[in-house]
Amino acid sequence: MNKSASMQIPLSKGGRQPWLPGGCPFIEKTRQIGTETTPSPPSTGESDAFSSAVVSLKRSWGILIKSLSVLQILIALLACQHNKPVLHIYTWADYIKPELTHRFEADHQCWVIIDTFDSNEAMYAKIKAGASGYDLVTPSSYMAKIMYDQGLIQLLDHSLLSNLRHIDPDYLKIAIDPEMRYSVPYMLTNTGLAYLRSKVPDFEPSWRMFDRKDLKGRITMLNDMRETIGAALKSLGYSLNTINDSELEAARDVVIRWKRNLAKFESEQYKTGLASREFLLVHGYSGDILQVQRENSDIQFDVPVEGTSIACDDFVVAKNSKEVTLAHQFINFMQEPEVAAENTNFVAYLCPNKTSYPKISEKIRQNPGVFLRPEIRAKSEVIQDLGANNVKYTRIWDQIKAAN
Amino acid sequence: MKQSRLPLVITLLLLAFFYLPILVLVITSFNASRFGTTWEGWSLHWYRRLLQEREILHALSNSLIIAVSATIVSVILGTTAAFALHRYKTRLQRFHYALIYTPLVVPEILMGISLLLFFVAIGMELGLFTIFLAHVTFCISYVAMVVLGRLQDFDFTIVEAAQDLGAGWWASTWRVLLPLLAPGILAGGLLAFTLSIDDFVITFFVAGPGSTTLPIRIYSMIKHGSPPLINALSTLLLLITFMVVWASQHLTRESS
Question: pTM value?
Fold first, then answer.
């Protein structure tokens, strides 16, 4: 594709336009269309009816094309790319502070185009089917591993990534790709407990909270087998990636005991349920809770001392990227401590960049939803894909769902 | 005898069932609060934020380019297809009918993934052009069906009369046939426009870098972005859709 105009409609190919310093092929082409098709006066025709029909057809066609080209010029003015290289990022919505991409664009004389996806699986289905053109993608760690195993992403060139020395070594110990061979951690999230301060007296940060009889029927847990069985495993002091049958059975009994105390297993509506005071205590994702917290200051978030699950989205470079160097430069830019701190403040997830931690705003640093205390982080784990052993979890989960 | 009130009550309940959620969405788009759960006063904050979002505006312009161009092309192709289907009753046309009818019943996800595989197989760069092609593919069917419906009660003797009076093929088509078909063609075109502007599934698969459309953007914002922005955006989309639907109804009514 023509690098100079990546937001284009596929018409845009052409040379320089003298009156446009950068030469915007887009505008030039649309202008050509506009002039080419301006209806020419009718020539003396054989059949009057025929030529008048042709003329009126031409005229309306001309109007159509003209209005289209007006639209295109508008778009072109919005999108005119000149001749700079373009970096295509495929990521979640609102996941990078816009000012930072503008700064990167200015520093590296390039354009950054962001496209968005809404789930790892949808993004994977698309890239796996052969969709190309994306340079930088931000899948979750487990998906990054799958994509690497399938040869969809490339090994990183560490000589271009000097800022990797800032990455938190404590996180890397539990990461799926600890040597950052194909992925660089971008944003961390974790699960935990959220509750209404005014309604839940003597809260203690522990998974044991799900046993509290005074909250019966006002509690939810995530409708996610790995998260919920994982919470039970953690409460028993086991790894949440265990494949030991007796440990899993012990965890099953714990979840079944909790289940009798729960309102339901719920992965989406618990946020609004908490905000509207329908639920008093929920098991949820830190990012979700932070959003509701901005609304309702009564909502508190804490992470159980037994440890929890950590999820991470990583930067990876697509196999068929055309801007490999630029993609590396972007990763390196986002891992500059100042930039990482600014981004963490904006996105409210934690970029695991150790040098950036002191630069993060105090409010975010005090929030256990974003900033996991080191001693709890040491006990927390990343949920890993267990391959064939996933069946063990599915079986246990079915038993939990069937129990009453 | 007094007429029963029941039908009226049922109608009102049904209307409430259909439109209340939309009304709630429109109202919450003016909510100053980040979540719909609490009311914090009227505000145009989210509409203002919307205008500052470069990516959303880019997505909107993508959507409009595709919707307009796909509508134009599918109206032309769909109308000619409908004409052929109505005029010639050969075995080939029966096959043609099945071909036109299929996109209406094929699940969107199937169409999306197969188009993606096709574009990748022939090495076509994914982008606005592939979305345009995909949209034309399904829009043609809708246009053809609407126009076909209009052709079915079209009196062809009028065209013959025009020809008797000396009109050539072009004149009779351009001056007689098309003006009479125009309401159907326009209704089909508006239908195509609305379908194109809010298609998600197919578009998601055939979109390439830099060609994120509005529905794709909205969908990813639900998970990771600010919900009220989506409400504001949906309200605007709704406004466009309602206007288009109103216009299409108006046009069809005028004709009958």
Answer: 0.71
